[in-house]
Design brief:
The complex is a heterodimer. Chain A is of the alpha/beta class. Chain A folds into 2 domains: about 170 residues, Rossmann fold (3-Layer(aba) Sandwich), CATH 3.40.50.300; about 35 residues, no CATH class. Chain A contains 10 helices and 12 strands. In chain A, the strands form 3 sheets. In chain A, strands 6-7-8-3-9-10 form a 6-stranded mixed beta sheet, with helices on both faces. A 4-stranded antiparallel beta sheet of chain A has the order 2-1-4-5, covered by helices on one side. Chain A is globular. By secondary structure, chain B is mainly alpha-helical. Chain B has one domain: ABC transporter involved in vitamin B12 uptake, BtuC. Chain B contains 13 helices and 2 strands. Chain B has a two-stranded antiparallel sheet. In chain B, a hairpin with a 2-residue loop joins strand 1 and strand 2. Chain B starts with a helix and ends with a helix. The model of chain B has no long low-confidence stretch (mean pLDDT about 90). Classes of the chains: A alpha/beta, B mainly alpha. At the A-B interface, helix 2 of A face helix 8 and helix 9 of B.
Chain lengths: ~280, ~325
């Protein structure tokens, strides 16, 4: 899979002028979990307007790769560049001003108000001794409105349901408003309406200036709607990368997940379904 | 929020007045020179020691709760007090009278902190679980050493030894140096308190929001250990102040450390002054170690808080 050059050509997309300069770039990056190589020599360029979806079976290294791209977990080898700077040399604060990540699990240890949690996303933008300005409060408030939690702003974060906690974590990273947004299964715990609302918002956000995102997704069908490119992780180090339409085929998905997948077309949208062994002839 | 500050300051003034003008089970305005000398030479230093120790323990407790990401952690949970008591007891047992016992206690607390830090962290990433495990085991080790020394010690020195285990303000003195330490720590920590809020969300989240977790956690550990060591060297091991006070203040002023730390320092000081006043006056002419009073107030209060917390969800 690794040597499959045809799927890697970036010319397939219509490039907007700004997207020629990558905001996040990784060259030859390898990642291991417990001594086992899960990603081998990954080359990836993330430019403005791009939304890359990461697909792969459980344990394929989606989360580990995202944490590596965020710079909080060291790579085995390779180079990471954020806005043209060597990321391992950057201070965390400088990284956090440009790159944010929604992690998979959000656990609140202390009782804080919902607005206060969302406001913590502004932390990297405020001086070490400074205080939150009115703009910071407005950004946090707006982020809460975006995820539909504005009415709960004064609640305790410990009283929220699983889905609400997830949306609060998302509001925090939206208040941070980074150029590069990494999202580890952003739709986890969300009902369908909130899934679509959240992904719609993230999509619109991509076109507000120098913005790009990479998200690990479980649901292939969300990738068809909300990703410009797809990165498939096999879990054994091999990977494939290319434009969404090219990558999401019955053949590739069946091979990736190790189970038969069928594409169903209704004329407006292609939907992938697990075929199951009984349906197969 | 100013309402809260005023209330806490009022409580502090009340506690200090009560402590200064009560003794032998009676409250009264001092009359005559001897009475005034009792107030200024005996009660004032003792009250000041209680105030400083309470503030130190409350601040250290709040920091330890951030460090271990657990609202129920206390300053002694990583074995600091065990090290202090063991060193203090050793100087008594071996008759090392040339070493001031407070200094021995302070050294013991720091030695214990260093052992826990080196063993738990090594060069790897910061791990709360390993830190907690190491601390609890080291504390158990000190416990064994202390029991051994109590068994070997003669009956005469036993009372002095108990001081370090229970905590007692009877002979405690806090110099202006320790007042300065409390003030400086409170100022420094409150200025950087927004970072503490972020760090209490865990190291990955803290790193993603722009903090350098390992460096910050190390700083917090060093400051919390030093504050605890100072508190123990002043008044022995006084339990529950460092646990209850930050917890209670979090319910009152919220989890933002910019408000929590000053509130905890004020309330911690007031609380210990009141507890000490009680310990002097409740069973006159006998005096209880103040650690008994804080535990007698602290245990039911803590269980009540825990129960309410559980019932809330």
């Amino acid at each position: 899979m690794n040597s499959d050059k045809t799927t890697r050509s970036p010319q397939q997309r219509v490039p907007s002028p700004e997207s020629r300069v990558p905001i996040l770039e990784c060259r030859n990056v390898s990642v291991s979990i417990g001594g086992q190589r899960v990603v081998e020599s990954l080359d990836l360029q993330l430019g403005a307007g791009q939304s890359i979806g990461i697909l792969g079976p459980n344990g394929a290294g989606k989360t580990t790769l995202l944490l590596t791209l965020a710079g909080v977990r060291p790579a085995d080898s390779g180079d990471l560049e954020l806005a043209g700077m060597n990321m391992p040399r950057m201070r965390r604060r400088a990284i956090a001003q440009r790159l944010g990540m929604l992690t998979q699990n959000t656990r609140f240890a202390f009782d804080a108000r919902v607005l206060q949690v969302a406001l913590s996303g502004r932390h990297p933008h405020i001086g070490p001794l400074g205080h939150e300005s009115r703009q910071d409060f407005e950004a946090a408030q707006k982020a809460l409105e975006t995820v539909g939690l504005a009415a709960l702003a004064d609640r305790s974060c410990l009283e929220l349901s699983g889905g609400e906690q997830r949306r609060l974590a998302l509001a925090t990273v939206l208040a941070q408003d980074p150029h590069v947004l990494l999202l580890d299964e952003p739709t986890n715990h969300l009902d369908p309406a909130h899934q679509v609302a959240v992904l719609d918002h993230l999509w619109r956000r991509l076109h507000q200036g120098n913005r790009a995102q990479i998200m690990a997704l479980h649901d292939v069908n969300l990738a068809t709607c909300y990703c410009t490119e797809v990165l498939m992780l096999g879990g054994d180090g091999r990977w494939e990368y290319g434009p969404t339409a090219e990558m999401l085929t019955e053949h590739r998905l069946s091979r990736l997940f190790g189970c038969p997948m069928r594409a169903v077309r209704d004329g407006r949208q292609t939907v992938f379904a697990v075929a199951g062994n009984l349906v197969q002839k | 929020m100013p309402v809260m500050t005023v209330a806490l300051l009022a409580l502090l003034v009340l506690a200090v007045s009560l402590s200064l003008f009560s003794g032998n089970g009676r409250i009264g305005w001092p009359s005559g020179e001897i009475d005034w000398r009792i107030v200024t030479e005996l009660r004032l230093p003792r009250t000041m020691a209680a105030l400083v120790t309470g503030a130190l323990l409350a601040l250290a407790g709040a920091l330890m709760q951030v460090l271990l990401r657990n609202p129920l952690a206390d300053p002694y949970v990583l074995g600091v007090s065990g090290g202090a008591a063991a060193f203090a007891l050793a100087t008594m047992l071996f008759g090392l009278t040339m070493i001031p016992i407070e200094l021995a206690a302070f050294a013991g607390a720091l030695v214990s902190s260093v052992i826990v830090f080196v063993v738990a962290q090594g060069s790897g990433p910061w791990s709360t679980t390993r830190m907690l495990l190491t601390g609890v085991v080291v504390a158990a080790g000190w416990g064994a050493v202390i029991s051994l020394m109590l068994a070997l010690g003669d009956d005469q020195s036993l009372r002095g030894m108990l001081f370090w285990l229970m905590g007692d303000l009877g002979l405690a003195r806090a110099g202006w140096g320790s007042v300065l330490v409390v003030a400086a720590a409170l100022l420094l920590l409150t200025l950087r308190a927004r970072s503490l809020n972020i760090l209490s969300a865990g190291q990955t989240q803290a790193a993603l929001l722009g903090e350098e977790p390992k460096r910050r956690y190390t700083e917090i550990y060093v400051i919390a250990s030093a504050l605890t060591a100072l508190a123990v060297s002043i008044a022995g091991t006084i339990g529950f102040v460092g646990l209850i006070v930050p917890h209670l203040m979090r319910l009152v002023v919220g989890a933002d450390h910019r408000r929590l730390l000053p509130a905890a320092a004020l309330f911690g000081g007031a609380f210990l002054v009141l507890a000490d006043t009680l310990s002097r006056n409740l069973f006159t002419p006998r005096q209880m170690p103040v650690g008994v009073v804080t535990a007698l107030i602290g245990v039911p209060l803590f269980l009540l808080l825990l129960h309410k917390r559980g019932a809330g969800r």
